[in-house]
Amino acid sequence: MPAAPVLPPAPVLDRLAAVGAGNQPPSPAGLLAVFNQLPDPRKPRGRRHSLAAVLTLATCAVLAGARSFTAIGEWSADAGQAVAGLLGVSRVPEESTFRRVLAALDADALDTALGAWAAAATTPPAGTRRRLAVDGKTLRGSRTPDSPGRHLLAALDHTSGVVLGQVAVDAKSNEIPALPVLLADLDLTDVIVTADALHTQRQTASWLVSRHAHYILTVKANQPALYAQLAALPWRRVKTAARTVERGHGRRERRTVKTTEVRAGLLFPHAVQAVQVTRRRQPLADGPATTEIVYLVTSLPTHQASPTLLATYAREHWLVENRLHWVRDVTFGEDLSQVRTGHAPQVMASLRNLAIAILRLTGATNIAQAIRHHARRPERPLETIKSLAC
């Protein structure tokens, strides 16, 4: 029986094929160019597939919903030579190739390269500043009997929902010294960095300001002297500057915000405003109401950040949970992943970050729906990557 004819590749992919095969210089902003810059961990002898081709196919598979090495290999096999040929690949890589390459790849170099690409691909709207939410996440499925799960610290752009940086946190350390490493390669001029109470550290604030950035940091009991000083401010004499009422998650939440200038005497470097946020939550069903008071400090002066803006920026920080961690856990099944070998846990997390970035930068608002769209036709992930490679 003669072999089934292979349909010609879609014209929109022709230029991507030329880039992958080296027939024309890649765009500096293109993902293929990014992948080509990475050091290949394999020995030259016996190498059948370029690193750029392997990483591009892996990215395509993750865009189509692949969650494991096996799934990446299966997607590549199903996509077949009609898709692999567009990257100049004469033979589709097997699952073992993806496993070996992703486990041996320099994960930090990958994150640095992807962060630079994402920063170049995202610009704040006119008249606004870039805002970065810094937060960490443990890859629970990467635990072994002898070691805890890999912990990664990421910086998410508030506006675009795109990760601009990721770094592994040493198992014997914590997130605090990792923050300067995470942000070291980014241009922080006039950028607002938001972080939770763990990062409310004097050295962190001083480092950010030395890089011409601003901070909005939460203050909790880990800074008892500062917390006591903020709580003792004459808040009763400060007028409420912003008030919101919202319903959701089975409760009604009333939020009030007060701000006051603190140009001298506060036990925190470069802080010029203190913020008090009072949250009163009332269950819609029967149940007692709860009240929580949170304090923030910021280096933003009053003429640059009104109380309403400060309240908005503080709430935006938790987009890192909703738009990144939740998506990776629920949509990509990250906490269920049993990938544990070498650098593979971090690399797989990086590919998930990249897939989310690609989808958001091409207009997707529902990540799960976008993944299903890309899963239905094998050429669609390449078409989407092509749209960003120009």
Description of the molecule:
The protein has 390 residues and is α+β, with helices and mostly antiparallel strands. Among the domains are: 11-108 and 341-388, no CATH class; 215-316, no CATH class. The protein has helices at residues 14-21, 31-36, 51-63, 69-84, 95-104, 107-121, 175-183, 202-210, 224-231, 307-316, 319-331, 344-361, 367-376, 380-388; strands spanning 131-139, 150-157, 163-169, 192-195, 214-219, 242-248, 251-261, 273-283, 290-298. A nine-stranded mixed β-sheet has the order 3-2-1-4-5-9-8-7-6, with helices on both faces. The longest helix has 18 residues, at 344-361.
Give the distance, in angstroms, between the N- and C-terminal Cα atoms: 41 Å
Mean pLDDT: 87
Quick one: biggest sheet?
A: 9 strands, mixed
> Looking across the biggest beta sheet, what order are the strands in?
3-2-1-4-5-9-8-7-6
Strand content: 15-25%
Residue windows where pLDDT falls under 50 for at least 5 positions: 1-29
Report the C-alpha radius of gyration, rounded: 24 Å
Q: What coarse outline follows from CA principal-axis ratios?
A: elongated
What percent of the residues sit in helical stretches (DSSP H or I)? 25-40%
DSSP, total strands: 9
The helix/strand series, from N terminus to C terminus, equals HHHHHHEEEHEHEHEEEEHHHHH
Structural class: alpha+beta
Total helices: the number is 14
Short description:
By secondary structure, this protein is α+β, with helices and mostly antiparallel strands.
